[in-house]
Predict the 3D structure of the following.
Amino acid sequence: MPKRNGAICSRVKWQGREAYAIQNDLVRIVALTGGGHVASFSFYGARGAAGMNPLWTPPWKTIEPQRYSPAAHAARYGPPPAGRLLAGIVGHNLCLDYFGPPSEEEARLGLAVHGEAPNQPWRKVRPGATAEGARLALATRLRVAGLDFQREIRLRAGESVAWLHETVTNRREADHFFHWVEHATLGPPFVSHRDSIVSLPGAEAKTLPGGYDADCLLRPDAEFRWPHAPGASGESVDLTRPFPRRGFGFVAGIRLDPRREVEFVAVTNTRARLLFGYCFRRTDFPWMTMWHEDRARKGPPWMGRCQSLGLEFGTTALPVGRRGSFLAGPLFGTEILTWVPARGSKTICYCAFLARIPAGFGALSDVRLEDEALALDGSSSDQPLLLKAAGARQLLSAECGVRSRRRCVELKE
């Protein structure tokens, strides 16, 4: 258990799953080795509402994705290609190298929903605690896609802001075009219709063309402007308030404000006085996909008992798979793919933050980068909430970007 100046990085169990935890004197983060999912982000040692984990924990018992067998587990988690993902999914998972279902041909060959990354084991590259805080690096190899992926989580002492540095390395001698989506999913009790407000700088948006695979709250294949979407019955639905109607769900792709350099997405729980969110560069992730499931899906493993709010920021708008997305082309004048050069790498940096907010703060209206802090503006507050974040402007640094030479750790076969 590496420990220094209150920072800890250790191997742990999370609901029976293999995991690593990093923490400082304020917060604790748990990341699973099965699928690489970030399962928990909470204030360390806090009780009651102050200790809520905003990230979604499914109402079913999950397993390591590599243990999934259609013969043994399809009745519990559903058949392939979705069953493998649902068997192990929690919290924040990565969609790489496609977003949505595989093609029929890919599914027959064993590929699952959202690509290889969230459906296979990850391994620890280097955990550790330093004078600055704790670090944890997990990595996985996408054998079919020909990519290596590494995520390093950095947590400084005395801060409730975690920095995530992710690198995709192309092992092949040809450019690779793909999807890269951070499938951040939040859930109860942090997310509720009464107490929670969703904030993001949205612009044009579109609902999923085929509708939802259960009762759909929104009109399919409809364009709108954030946050007011056309309801299936002709009404206007305010997407800033989650779970407005039990038994319904939807998926919508939202183009983030093209005038901004730094984008954000966050949820405020006014009763618990907690705020959780992400901040990232628009050049990396110009899209937000909102997934809303309010006890609509009745098949396994959902069984009409799940509430989840996906706030999925990434390089593409809607989870229609690689083939459907690439053939459709740009949406609202914005590309819906990214690329990594032959034998090259691409690094993206972003942060996740957790904050206690004062009474009367309201919803988050903006996030600004200061030299040593994130400045969080509340819709009902005259003064910004300054969240300590040493070197916050690193989000815009040259450390991220496309490189023609590999930089991440080579993974063994």
In short: DSSP finds four helices and 28 strands in the chain. The CA atoms of residues 142 and 148 lie 6 Å apart. Residues 3-403 form a domain with the Beta-galactosidase; Chain A, domain 5 fold (CATH 2.70.98.10). The mean pLDDT is 93.
